UniProtKB/TrEMBL annotation, chains A, B, C, D, E, F:
The organism's place on the tree of life at top rank: Bacteria
SUPFAM superfamilies: Zn-dependent exopeptidases
Residue ranges of domain Succinylglutamate desuccinylase/Aspartoacylase catalytic in the record: 48-234
NCBIfam families, alphabetized: ectoine_eutE
Organism: Paracoccus saliphilus
UniProt keywords, alphabetically: Hydrolase, Metal-binding, Zinc
Protein name in UniProt: N-alpha-acetyl diaminobutyric acid deacetylase DoeB
Alphabetical list of InterPro entries matching this protein: AstE_AspA_cat (IPR055438), DoeB (IPR014336), N-alpha-Ac-DABA-like (IPR043795), N-alpha-Ac-DABA_deacetylase (IPR053138)
Co-factor(s): Zn(2+)
GO function terms (MF aspect): hydrolase activity, acting on carbon-nitrogen (but not peptide) bonds, in linear amides; hydrolase activity, acting on ester bonds; metal ion binding
Length: 334, 334, 334, 334, 334, 334
């Protein structure tokens, strides 16, 4: 198989702080010899652990890009022991389009791992992270939010892993992140995820959901910035103490009945908001017909007790959309 | 000038509750003899004042459509004295597209009044409301929210009018609506607005901004529903007492310096949220470059003291976008 | 007002047979100094009446273009007394796009008369016909069919006109055309139609509906070709006898209850076909939901006795589409 | 290889009649956690053979969807022995778009078999039918028509198969269907077809072509409904006798010279219609230039004697389009 | 009529050098309270004449934007007497799209004058120049090139005007510009042009065509920069001497026979290049069919003697495209 | 693997001159049984070597298509010894779209070799050339130019090959072609190129770059026509002597530092033109900001001494675009 055509314009193993690009040649109608230029910053000081911080895996999720621009600008190499690799806009074409998937190949980057060096643009990006950047790292923090169509309670998350020692290390990093909520997740279908690619290489991995709707707030940006610093401090890469979260809560998404789907198209009338505690059988959303008045609405009832942890964002819904996720309060050990 | 081609499929002057459509013939490639079908409900009981309730003036604002579907379904004609005309999706093509302006003619309905009977689809809709529905009404409530690109503190609003008696009646209706905030507005450029069309016919008019981002929440939907009922009760059309808002605040948008514009394209990093009180000179938002790291961001400073009443919603901004509106607490009489 | 910029590349008043274009300058992104080139043929021999034959008023109706290409190719000037002006593809951009309306300005040419010399491309075309070609003519034959979204029984038609002498001349020409059906029509809304533009100049006018669905058949093409020759013979322009239609029937569209509209979106299940005689109250079409099974369909009942003269063509319908037209057998004098 | 992600929302092995969906998770820009919801009905009563009835393999062919909606609504489980699985809109995204191929991945479902569980949306659908539904069935009826660009004489068809016993069973089912025509077909290129996927699993298979042009008529819908009932009766699944077709004719498409291709772009002038008997050398269609008059047309001559069984539908043709198929009357044993 | 909503962000009557924007509010789906921001630079020093320099009237013509960016950057206010107003990207939305006409309203700005303050975005821009900027100016230089679809010999041009004194002043300014060629033009259809708007206000006006194809070269950029400086020096606004052009030639476009149009679609095979002298009857271009080989090409013959001054640029042509303009050497007095 | 579905409509091994098509069945929404028709001409006379001449590998490069149409029309079989296979529009869908890559599958044909018989349209085309046409040939000439986004000095080129005997034969053919420049190229990434597919089959291969910008000139077309004749004469296929180029120069692209990339988006201001000799460190291009004035431009400096052999064509650039290629004068033996 051919080599990945992506080339960094700065050395990944230099010292100090350098800003550059991952240059991916991309021949197309509007530029026969054009490139995709993915911004990257490397901040290094001496020997030590390596952190890879990524945002923009989905192009319409903004807490990660904001936090990573802030860190790339603000972190002084003198405060670093080891190396921080920052890629705020991982799926750069999607980020520029403000879209979840790449406008070039319609690929969801987070289902494209381990990628292909001779594949589409997104597959090449996935492959470069999988084969070049992740192997360099000890800890990986990948930011997500709900994007334009979902909204989440702000949480950092770890997965249930076969390697319980690795899982414990991930949970510790998640707690260090210090989001208002922490979540334990069992991925039903983890094929192709960046998470899986990182975890299968034995790395400490933190993922997040920090809001959504295709926007960020001052509050969610602040959570994202503090979280990354905390993970870097926890990992011994950045000087300073972890700033613990106050009143953080541990949640669980234990099974398929957490997910609630729309059974018809229409206008979404929410009856419960993010963070609301609900009881099984309680109406949590109503769907009105999009084309007429005077028709009885369809009410969606909670499958289980818990807290609304995610919800459909746009005012219009389509049959089959996930309207809400009800999480449980975590009771066991992670 | 020719007659407006829109025809209602139900009588507008009937008694009881009837659901139907405003049918607008629209010949196009995919239906030579097609129509735009705008849902309408009329609820009438005896003689009395007439209210016109409208949502979907902009197609990506959802509190109005939700509240009006709920009212069209729930209101019992026996509780009515007079007549309620409900049009939840005024710019129906825009509503179905989830877009601010009509996908048919790219027209912003709220700048298309008084419209034209022989104009584009949006101009015909504007003209029908201007010439047929508004003249029937004593009080008009038109719902707005921020849509996909703006977010607002929830408020109902009245305009400063030349006719101070009319203005006072509008302010009373706004207060009856009972949103968490009430706003006095001086429109710089009111040409073409539905507001202007209604006010110039001497009607009592209430407009709102109840959230935004292209979504609604349980809380904002509740405000919208209660507000309409309050206005109907205040007007003597619906039985029952007005439910007053607790702790409602009166705000003002006194001048052009309330509006803050982006001076470059990029990634929006908010530094203050809706409802936050800010001081003149305080940074309220930061813009990071969309294409590289390591560049100093541009900070946007508050022009004046006040409260953040509106903000740009999407995570990406373009030069010239309004990033924030700072309102003042209203001190004088409305 | 400025002069119409369209220029013919052949003389309109020459003798013999000449083929050329109406050249309309059209500056656009892909050709700064480009043109719309509308094919035209003029066949003239000595002095005599002038016929204007037009097809492609709507770009997805094919009997007219076929018949007029055949005539432009086949007619020998020696058989002509007077002049025949043939424009097979009147709305040429729409014809090339296979669409009802122009892809350039989205204008329905048949609602754009009398047009504007400084308007959009379609408005300029309308204006050139209105101001230059129609005034030259004594008789005008404009071909229509149902296009991609309607299908018709094959008929030629005349309008009820205030000038009964003119109406009688039109009816004679319609009968001469010799379609299987002839139709008397009372246009509710004739504003902007080519028909109205022609009739208001006092011309003998024949219009047709000869099929539809965005196709033509050998049979419908044959009707179109023979019809034009018959009208030309009837007018004394083409040598030979009118070939009368056998068993032709006269129909009427007497009122608004002829038209039957869909009241919901879905899959169209026709229960009666073109030419079928139906009784008031009889189900003529059924609409199944497009998104699920197991829901009772909506049946559309005939408003009146008569014959199915037109129907919605595509398998999917939208609320407000005209599903069927039921015509009556004509009983009075035209 | 991973498991197919499609999940039915109803049990496929239940009793009685149930309506639900095949839910296929589909993450995209406008719904991060969205789904494709393919309607399905299962009607079962006791033990017995299983029929799989499918429409909408191509999304612009309507006789199948109409017939299957009608059957899903009308069939009483008490009349059933065994099980009927009904999927009216197999390529649901294509059906909703009114298009032959899926708007999501541009895939022609009928060339996508056996599909991939980790492929595109269409490939996942193909794989689910191939691996889950077809194995359950004894007899499979897949409806086709010409879609928006072809029109066919109404026929049911069987393929020449290596397993002559299987072929004979298929031919019997085709005859039971009772369309006005029956057809024996030798597929030149059967790779990727649903037909091939079904036949290779040893099932009795009936396919059809029942019209086209992107519409259905009352007559063609009736043929489709009666045909499915006949096949179900013939298979012993539905109570009642097969209603034989009157005057049905057996046709053959014996070779490549049945197909007639356009050799230039232009306006199609048909010279023979569906069902017309033609002689070798006879002109069956004419192509006029789309951009000018006065040019000699190109005539397409019949390659062989026979009956016009299929034709190009749209009024415009492109070089390389199949304009007509001439079938022969079947003389040998099937 | 309402006031033009465009507001400059810098004072137009200040001293020294200031860079800012013309801000045009533009509400749209992706920014409800967005703006079009047209860059502007004002360089002023004391009292003196005023020059208005404009580029990007068509958005795909680059010599003007390059020269004006260079001048806005380079000119020292100390070298100025009077005022220079520079707008490099007049039709800013078209410039950003790399297109001749605005992507917002499809309007050709150079046919939109005098514009409308309440019109489309392009009409508002035209109106602001017509009513605000042009009246401030004594001399106006508007850059053009061929754009993506035409290519020109580099020339500056003046029009034949009724006011011969004004014409002479324009011709002097054109000669001062110092392009390799100068051109006298008689506009057949000058309605809506910026040229006409400026000239009708009695200003000295210079227009240019400096290349084309949607690109610029080092040489054409140099001509553009030197030309503007020369005009400013000629006008007494910029210090220094006019740098005369060496060997400049005066050309004329005396009539409609200068223009040569394509009579069919196809592949363009040029037989003469820009600057070549040709004789009447000489083949200057050949058109090959785009869809087949082995067909005799169509040759385009020169209507007259002269020099090829403009040509169609793209390799594909459409019937009606202007393929070439043949200019004559100017012999009389301008 | 299945057989390639492409079928020629003329015999490839016939005698004399025949014009036809490579017919590739392509089922799609607008033609269920449609085809891609790639024009082909075969000119043969007796036994002898076989040349394959191809243009339109990229659809926006015109010198090849022009030259090959000219040759297909002009060459007399009597002047031939052997066989000439001419395909002017290899990626026919891209050629008709005037685009580099195919509008059907977005595939760059010149990175799709060896293709797949069951792949996308472009992959099928690649596979047919790879498996059928190239094996027939002794010498292959494939025309390229810069297309719409690049411009080149006119040169023919050969690659450095492992087989030095083959390389020498290629170089001889390149010199015979007789372009103003000849180039020796070392492809860094030759995977998927037609060049590689041809060379790996041991053929004599000539490629070219003969201009660009999406146009051709009389001069560049002449070079292309003479070049093909020269190669055919050099190969002994066409009668006559090679016409040597006067003053032809041999260039080299020795390494990655020949390529110069844009480091930001903006307006391109070239400071050196094609053919200009430059020194290392010399500014060769400048980028101005696309959204404001008064910002210092970014200058691009030459990495090395040499001649500008290629440049970015459009007036706007994106970060990562190749702005210029500086070639060296070839000094060693090829």
């Amino acid at each position: 198989m051919s080599a990945n055509p992506i080339q960094p314009t700065i050395p990944l193993d230099g010292q100090g702080k350098q800003h550059g690009f991952l240059r991916l040649p991309y021949s197309r109608n509007d530029s026969a010899w054009g490139s995709v230029m993915i911004p990257i910053t490397v901040i290094a000081n001496g020997e030590g652990p390596v952190a890879l911080l990524t945002g923009g895996n989905h192009g319409d999720e903004y807490e990660g890009p904001i936090a990573l621009q802030q860190l790339a600008w603000e972190i002084d190499p003198a405060d670093v022991t080891g190396r921080i690799i920052i890629v705020p806009y991982m799926n750069y074409p999607a980020f520029r389009a403000g879209a979840r998937v790449s406008p070039i190949d319609q690929v969801n980057l987070n289902r494209a791992f381990p990628g292909r060096p001779d594949g589409t643009v997104s597959q090449k990006i996935a492959n470069y992270f999988n084969d070049v950047l992740v192997p360099m790292a000890d800890v990986v923090l990948d930011y997500h939010s709900g994007g334009k169509t979902l909204d989440f309670l702000p949480y950092a998350a770890a997965h249930y892993l076969d390697d319980k020692r690795q899982q414990a290390a991930c949970v510790e990093a998640v707690k260090a992140f210090g989001a208002p909520y922490s979540m334990m997740m069992l991925e039903i279908d983890s094929v192709g995820m960046f998470d899986t690619a990182v975890e299968s290489q034995g790395k400490v991995f933190v993922t997040t959901e920090l809001g959504g709707g295709g926007t960020a707030s001052a509050r969610s940006a602040e959570i994202a910035i503090r979280g990354a610093k905390n993970v870097l401090r926890h990992s011994g890469i950045l000087a300073g103490e972890v700033e613990p979260a106050e009143g953080a809560q541990m949640l669980d998404m234990p099974g398929g009945d957490c997910f609630h789907f729309a059974s018809r198209d229409g206008l979404l009338h929410p009856l419960a908001d993010l963070g609301d505690q609900v009881k099984a059988g309680q109406p949590i959303a109503r769907i009105w017909p999009p084309d007429r008045t005077g028709i009885e609405p369809v009410d969606l009832l909670a499958n289980r007790d818990g807290v609304i942890a995610a919800r459909h964002f746009p005012g219009l819904v389509q049959s089959g959309d996930c309207l809400a996720v009800i999480a449980a309060f975590h009771t066991g050990d992670a």
